[in-house]
Amino acid sequence: MSKNISLLAASLAAAIAFAAAPAMAQSKGDWTIGVGVHNVDPKSDNGTLNGSALDLGALKTHVDDDTKPTVTFEYFIADNVGIEVLGALPFKHDISIDGVGKVGETKQLPPVVSLQYHFTNASIATPFVGLGVNYTKFFSTDGKGALADAKLRLEDSWGLAAHVGVDFAVSDKGALRVDMRWADIDTKVKVNGNKLGTANIDPLVYGVAYVFKF
């Protein structure tokens, strides 16, 4: 997680150093599009699965992180209030078990729809907060290592999502965005049709983007 905090800190410093324009106004009827890159960083403890069906005992699982390009679209339904949709290229994650090593890999798409409020002011910086719903679609899930010959499946997930960030204006229509999200992602795990329990992924998502208003 420290590398993501370092990335955010560096981006924040760069934005403060180079942004010199007044904050972008966010008015009813405006649209913005944001193009950037984000890291999905699952929490360190992803839970313990029941491996009795595989004669493996308790399975303490870990899901690694991944970074991919992202895109956002936001429509302002009122001054300073927008509805945002987040999309991305598929994130790929390795799945491992303590004492066993890598046992699988999966891809996921985590679209998020959020209602957001932007705190406009006279400075170059416009902070915002958002709350929404996340749907995570898991696909291309394959068993590896000890599960190489098994059929591994992760079920899709619905959950809440929270969003905070700051836009640093670089013009009256453009801004550099530094942001962080949290998503509630809990997926039921099956191997060869046997239910092993639920993996609690619940990632923090860190990133930077360029946001353009039109």
Write structural notes for this entry:
The chain has a single domain, classed as Beta Barrel (Porin). The protein contains 1 helix and 15 strands. The longest helix is centred in the first third of the chain and has 17 residues.
SSE layout and pairings?
Elements: H1 2-18, E1 31-41, E2 48-51, E3 57-63, E4 66-78, E5 81-88, E6 91-97, E7 101-109, E8 112-118, E9 125-143, E10 152-154, E11 157-169, E12 174-183, E13 186-191, E14 194-200, E15 204-213
Antiparallel strand pairs: 1-4, 1-15, 2-3, 3-6, 4-5, 5-8, 6-7, 7-9, 8-9, 9-11, 10-13, 11-12, 12-15, 13-14
Uncertain runs are: 11-21
- Helix percent band: under 10%
Percent strand equals over 45%
Q: Using the coordinates above, name the CATH class.
A: Mainly Beta
**Count of helices?**
1
List keywords for this structure.
214 residues; mainly beta; Porin; 8-stranded antiparallel β-barrel; 3-stranded antiparallel sheet; 1 helix; 15 strands; 8% helix; elongated
What's this entry about, in short?
This protein is mainly beta.
